[in-house]
Amino acid sequence: MSGLTGEGKEMVPELRKDLWEMRDAIDRYKDLTDRGGIQTKADSQGYPPDLETLVKGVDVQGKKTRFLRRIPIDPMTGTTEWGLRSMQDDPDSDSWGGQSVFDVCTKSQGTALDGTKYKDW
């Protein structure tokens, strides 16, 4: 089993925080859509089209509503490019179909101390 360096261990809490923040933003967008506050494409199932939409915001009753201040930098890869999944994607797929953003994950291929892949968190 591969372990983490001291630096890697410090990144784990940040990865969890970033994933939680983005998933919370996706959930808030979906909730507002379900309540009729945002009009979306039928095949999106109410999820945002991309992460940038969560940062730029959407017009809700004449007011701009933002869900994220910025797209976080993935502490494992050092980029703002995250793995994305839509409802239409196969749960085991490593590629995004592009319909909407249902979930996010790191693009890191690393393994945590417990043996799980970071991309599966």
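^ that was protein a. below is b, sequence first then the tokens
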Amino acid sequence: MSDRIKFIKHFSMFAALLFLGTSSCWAHQQYPVTGMVLKADPSRKTFIVSCQSIPGYMDAMVMPFEVREARDLEGLKPGMTVEFTLVVEKESNYAEHVQIRSYESGEQDPLTARRLKLLNQLSHPAPASA
């Protein structure tokens, strides 16, 4: 094989590897986000969230997010806690997979906790006031 053909093969391989390496730099990134909804506007496909910090991307802040589909915002109301994926692309970003996080009690079993509280009140009654 001539030196010229070897050079062209090596150059082509180098160019292909370089292209593959740089194209991944422009690929989108995804971050999990948790926050509280302050406002939802399905007609504009946006919602405003007070979100926790996103490690490696941004500090905690209030900011608007766009969604691709208005149905992703169905049922969202101010005060709700949500989880979603923030997709960051070269020229834009958007939220997807918006999930309303249901209320979680700190008590494992609220009914049992109430029973224990009643039993405690019965066994240790408060002194009667005059």
